[in-house]
Amino acid sequence: MSDDFLISARDLSVGFKIGSGLFGKSILKAVDHVDLDIEKGSFFGLVGESGSGKTTLGRALLKAVPITGGSAHYRDGEVDYDLTTLSGAALKDYRKRAQLIFQDPYAALSPRMTVRDIIAEPLEVMGLTRTREETDARVREIAAKCRLNLEHLRRFPHAFSGGQRQRISIARALVSGPQFIVADESVAALDVSIQADVLNLLKQIQRDMGLTFLFISHDLSVVAHTCDHVAVMYLGRLVESAPTRTLFAAPRHPYTRALFSAIPSLDPDDRGRAQKLIGEIPSPTNQPSGCKFHTRCPYAIDRCKAEEPVLEHPGDGHEVACHRWRELLDEQAA
Amino acid sequence: MSALIDVRNLTLKFRTDEGLITAVEDVSFSIDTGEVMGLVGESGSGKSVTAKALMHLNARNAVYSPESRITLHTETGPVDVLSLKTARELKVVRGGAISMIFQEPMASFAPAITIGKQMVEQLQLHSDMSKARAREISVEMLDRVGISDPARRVDQYAFELSGGMRQRAMIAMALSTKPKLLIADEPTTALDVTIQAQVLDLMKDLVSEFHMGIVFITHDLGVIAQTADKVSVMYLGRLIEEGPVREVIRNPKHPYTQGLLAALPKLDDLEAPLTPVAGDIPSPLERPTGCVFHTRCPKFLGDICKTALPEDARTDPSHRVACHIHSAEVPA
Q1: pTM beyond 0.90
Q2: Are strands B69-74 and B3-16 parallel, antiparallel or unpaired?
Q3: How many CA atoms lie less than 13 Å away from A119 in the CB half-sphere?
Q4: Which of A45, A226, B265, B300 is most buried, taking the most CB atoms under 10 A from its CB?
C-alpha cells in the first residue's frame, strides 16, 4: 500500500520556541503528532480554523519550516526522500518536485517583473533550462495550460484581475515540473464568480499532469467540491480523516459536525437550526489537557479532560480521534 | 414600518489621474426601521462606496451628481445627508444616527488606547453624559455582546482580544450610541465559520432588540440568506436586482445573480460541477456601454444589450430587475 502514497508522515510535530520568560523558554506546538498519508494523484483537503496548524503542516511538508519530531517521507517513484534529514543537493531537487501556491495573488507577484519573468524565474534560479529559447518555450507551454496568452506574458501584474493573477501564480508554481503542490487558501481571496474558475483549472491541471495536491482551506464547501479526501485539524492535531463523500455524509467527530453546521445555509427558511459551538479555539501556548476539543465540545465527559484520544483506524478508511464517537453514532441512529 | 433612509439616483464618481471613474451609478433604494438589507456584489461593484455615501464618508475626490439624494429620517425631521458639510453637522450621520462596523476590527480600534477609553470618547462625543456614566454603558454593552468579564475587558487593548472578541467589541462600540441604522461591511468575513455563526446570531438578536435598520454588505450569499430581509445585488456600480431574500435566492431574475448562485459550491450536491461566471469583471476605466453586464452575460440578446441601458422591470411589486430580457417581457 505504502507505494501509493506520495507523502507519508508519522508522528509529525512542528514546535516553535517562543519568548524566554521567567520559567525559561516555552514551546508552541503548532503541529502535534500527526499521521498523514497522501495518495499519489489525489486532491487532498486539509481543513480547520485559524490556529489549527494546517498551514504549518503544509509548510513542514515543503521543508519551509523545520520538522521537530516524527518522520515524513516523499516517494514519487524516482526518488525517496526523508524530509526530516533532507539537505544539500537532494533538498534542491525536492524544491523542484514540491511547490506552493499562495493565498494572496496581489502580494505573491512582484509588481516590477513582467509575467514572463515571474513565471521564468524558478527555471533560471534552479538552472532547469540552458538557453533563453528553452526557457521561453517552457514558459509558453505552462502559460497556455493556465490560459495565459503571449500578450499576457509581456504585461505587468497590475494589469490583471484577481483571477488572472492567481492563474499566473499557478503557472509559476508549475513551471519547474513539480509532482506535489501545496495550495494554501488559494481561492480564499477571490470573488465567488472567479473562485469556481480557478478551482476548475486546478482540478484540470491535477488530472492532466497527474499531480498530487494538498489543498488547505477553511471553506468546507469548496473542499467538498474539489477534494477526494479530507483531513480535519484542531489545535495541531488531526481529529478526523476520510474520503470526502464519507466525511460529508457522516462526520464522526463532534468538531467536524459543528464545523458543518456553522456553514451558513443558502436556504432563508433554514435559519438558526445549526448546532452552534460556544467559545473559541484555545491559545496553542496554553493547550487544554486530554482531548484538546473538550473545552468546546457539547459531549465532553470526565475522561475527555484527562485522556487524549488517539486517531482510531476502524478499517473503513474513516479515521477519527474521539473517545465517544461510536456512542454518539449509536445515539444519533437511535 | 417607516422609511428610515431613502437613497435616490445616487451617482458617484472619483476624480483620479486617469480621469473620472464611475463607482456608483443611478442607485436607488430605501431601508425601513427594523429591516436588514443585504448588499451583495464582487470587489469593485461599488457596495462599500454606496454604504460609505450613507455617512458621507467617501474620500475627497468623490464627486456626487446633482440628482443624488440621500435622506435620513430622524425624530427631528428629514436630514439631507449629502448637504452636510461641517464636522458638527456630520456628527448626526457619523456615529450618531448611523454607525458602521468593519471587516477588520484590529484596524478600527486605535492600538494604543484601551477599548473602554475609545467607547467612552464616542459616547461623550454624541451626548452630554458624564464619563462615569459612559463607562457604565460601555461595560453594559460589552456584557450584552457576550464578552465575559466586561469590567476587566473594558480596560484592555484591542490586541489583547481574539478576533471574534474584537469583532464583538466593535459591535458593542457601534451600538452604544443607539444608532437607527447600522452599516456592517463584511463584518464576519475575517472570522472562522464557528465564530461567524456566533457573531451572526448576536447581530440577529441585536436587530430585534434595538429595532434598527441594517445594511449588511457581504459577498457571501449564505450569510445573506441567514440574516437579510431583502437583498440588493450590485454589479459595476449599478443595482441590477432587488427583492425579498427568499425571492432573490430561490428565483433570481438577473443573469448575473443567477450566475453568482450557480458559482457557489453547494453542500447538498457534491457532484454538481462548479460553473463560474465567464470572464472577468471589467476595469472601471473600460466601463461597458449599455448594460454593464453584457460583456459576461450568458443570455446576451444582441445589440440592445450593448447600446441601451436596461430599465428597471418589476417581476412582482417587491422584486425589480434591470435586464432587457425582463423589460421585454414585462412592459413598464
Answers
A1: no
A2: antiparallel
A3: 34
A4: A45
Cβ-Cβ contacts under 8 Å for A119 (sequence gap 6 or more): A139, A142, A143, A153, A168, A171, A172, A175
pLDDT in tens, B208-256: 888 899 999 998 898 999 999 999 999 999 999 999 999 999 999 999 9
- The whole-chain average pLDDT of chain A stands at 91
What CATH homologous superfamily does A2-245 map to? P-loop containing nucleotide triphosphate hydrolases (3.40.50.300)
Per the CB < 8 A criterion, the answer to whether A162 and A189 are in contact is yes
The interface predicted TM-score of the complex, written ipTM, equals 0.82
Q: Is some CB atom of chain A closer than 8 A to the CB atom of B97?
A: no
Task: For A256, name the nearest residue in chain B, comparing CA atoms only.
Answer: B194
Beta carbons of B226 and A265 less than 8 Å apart: yes
Mean pLDDT of the A71-98 span: 94
Query: Is residue B331 over pLDDT 50?
Result: no
Neighbours of A302 (CB within 10 A): 9
Interface touch B267/A163, C-beta < 8 Å: no
Q: Which residues of A touch B249 (CB under 8 A)?
A: 266-268
Query: Which residues of chain A from 199 to 238 reach within 8 Å of chain B, CB to CB?
Result: 199-200, 218, 220-222, 224-225
Rounded CA-CA distance B291/B300 in Å is: 10
In chain B, residues with a C-beta closer than 8 Å to the C-beta of A266 are: 221-222, 225, 249, 261, 264, 266
Interface check B43 vs A, CB under 8 A: yes
Give residue limits of the domains in chain A.
2-245
Say yes or no for a CB contact (<8 Å) between B220 and A163: no
Q: Check CB contact of A285 with chain B, cutoff 8 Å.
A: no
Contacts of B265 in chain A (CB under 8 A): 196, 199, 221-222, 224-225
CA B300 from chain centre, in angstroms, equals 29
- Cβ of A224 within 8 Å of Cβ of B281? The answer is no
For helices B131-144 and B115-126, the axis angle rounded to 10 degrees is 120
Q: Which residues contact B205 (CB under 8 A, 6 or more apart)?
A: none
The residue with cell 481543513 is A47
Max Cα–Cα distance, chain B, nearest Å: 67
3-state secondary structure B126-145: HCCCCHHHHHHHHHHHHHHC
Each domain of chain B, given as residue ranges in start order, spans 3-97+179-329, 105-178
Classify domain B3-97+179-329 at the CATH topology level: Rossmann fold (3.40.50)
Separation in Å, CA B316 to CA B243, B248, B324, B330: 9, 12, 16, 10
Residue-by-residue DSSP string for B272-323:
SPP-PPSS-PPPGGGPPSSSTTTTT-TT--SHHHHHSPPPEEEEETTEEEE-
